[in-house]
Amino acid sequence: MSGEITIEPWSQIQGEDAGIFSVEIVNPEKLNAMTRKMWRQLKAIFEDIQKNHMARCIVVQSHGGNFCAGGDIAEYPAFRFDPDSLAAFHEEDVWGGLNAMLSCDVPIVASIAGVCMGAGVEIASCCDVRWVSENASFGAPIAKLGFPMAPKELHLVASAVGAHTAKRMLLEAAVFSAQDMAATGWCAQPLPALRLHERVEGVARRIASLSPQAARLNKQAMRSLSLNEAVPAPYAYAASAEHCEGVTAFIEKRSANF
């Protein structure tokens, strides 16, 4: 198996958990390491999700017990030793996938178990909410391979995990436990592995039950604010159906129908 990124509805039962989708990293023979093809698939999938107005929550998870061990190092000799091909890999393939996630207005929940290294930390850092199992481990020990983290990817990771943790990952090749990462605020409190799926499912259902318009507008605003940009037309939603329904439902003491 050469590895792939897949997407499918969370539930195969018609109408159940509508709007929740699972995006899965599938390369279990290599601890779900990312290939160039998989980065391109990740980009295409999240670009399609952005256009899908029925999508309410995305769960990013993996196949086979490990989230993602990093990049597929077996591919590296084909492009890493030339500056132009190396730049194309990072700026087009890797950043293409990560930026598609960052630009997605649909809430993204990460479900992380086992090994989460390098590319895995980058993908998880693009998610809005991160739930992890107690057996998860995190790092980016690429100094052992003789290269640094690409600038855009470094900015992403340092912004998410904090500068000190990022420096330890890169300069010490330090590996952190789930409890270590929770202490930084990067993820929620770790759970026993057998409870992770149940918790993530509950979180996804909770998000999907709320206003999708509010979620998308919140993500757009947070993205603008992170770039020190003004939020465009922040009150344009005033007369929208979801706004009116939410307020009316509260006054009428009933659940809102979003």
TrEMBL record:
Q: Which PROSITE patterns match?
A: ENOYL_COA_HYDRATASE
Q: Which residues form the signal peptide?
A: none
Question: Could you tell me which InterPro entries the record lists for this protein?
Answer: ClpP/crotonase-like_dom_sf, Enoyl-CoA_hyd/isom_CS, Enoyl-CoA_hydra/iso
**Entries under SUPFAM superfamilies matching the protein:** ClpP/crotonase
Identify the Pfam families for this entry.
Answer: ECH_1 (PF00378)
Q: State the family named in the UniProt similarity comment for this chain.
A: Belongs to the enoyl-CoA hydratase/isomerase family.
Record's protein name: Enoyl-CoA hydratase/isomerase family protein
Q: What species is given as this protein's source?
A: Comamonas avium
